[in-house]
Amino acid sequence: MNHLLTLKTLTQEAFLELLSSAQSIKANPQQYSQALAGKSVAMLFEKPSLRTRVSFDIGINKLGGHAVYLDQQNGALGVREPVSDFASNLSCWVDAIVARTFTQQTIEELAEHGSVPVVNALSDLYHPCQGLADWLTLKEHFVDLTQVHLAYVGDGNNVTHSLMFGAALAGAKMTIVCPPGHFPDAMLVLEAQALAQKHGGDIVLSEKLSALENVSAIYTDTWISMGDTVELAEIKQKFMPFQVNTQLMQQTNAQLFMHCLPAYRGQEASAEVVDGEQSVILQQAENRMHAQNAVLLKLLG
């Protein structure tokens, strides 16, 4: 493991090891307070961020390391100077690069041209750190991930992709329900299904909410991703039947509600569900830091 660009390149052993490491870091923070002493991490952000920026910054600090935040006031990486130059220059000074970018291609270029580990903090295709945090959260509630049935409802996106590969590596079942035309990337679905079959899991897609039976948790995300220009009225017409509300939680016997945030109450999920007793959204948010610290320790420790 030289980088974390996507979960799909991890072995099952490496994936489960990261989850166990995150649990240990969370339970025994003092044991890791100097784990990254003397290490510096550059954080490149093309997009605005709350959870990703703060969880990495504070997390690196809790491990005894130093974080350098670099926003892109001039737009996407590669506009002011080539991505290759960003990567090679930063590699002269820092020990790792964390990047939140518009495209996966930028992440891949940073890894190709830099000489230090690169962590994908979000791209158009993947959100591996979110995926790790989410499966860590599920592990805390259900222990045996092979018995988990995760439902994802809404827009198939980068988060869905990472959850799929997490499910495949965990040997869990995942059912994805989307409106027609809004399913996750077909090639990535096939890859995830093949990986799931290898590890005893299952990835199922459907257009019908009736496909959700006896699920462990229901996960949803915003209907409009950051930067999209689609009219909200048009999106609501397609997606409102897929809203996660109390009725859906009861019909599916879901024990938990999950969301990567920010959440728009009354749209992808009702306020009663988002703020209800079954909601673990803040546990997911906290676990971002622990999962990411596990990744940094694996790459740098």
UniProtKB/TrEMBL annotation:
SUPFAM superfamilies: Aspartate/ornithine carbamoyltransferase. Gene3D superfamilies: Aspartate/ornithine carbamoyltransferase. One of its GO terms (biological process) is citrulline biosynthetic process. The keyword Calcium does not apply. It holds the Pfam family OTCace. Its EC number is 2.1.3.3. It comes from the Bacteria. Keywords: Transferase. GO terms for molecular function: amino acid binding; ornithine carbamoyltransferase activity. It catalyses: carbamoyl phosphate + L-ornithine = L-citrulline + phosphate + H(+). Belongs to the aspartate/ornithine carbamoyltransferase superfamily. OTCase family. This is Ornithine carbamoyltransferase. It comes from Paraferrimonas haliotis. The gene is argF.
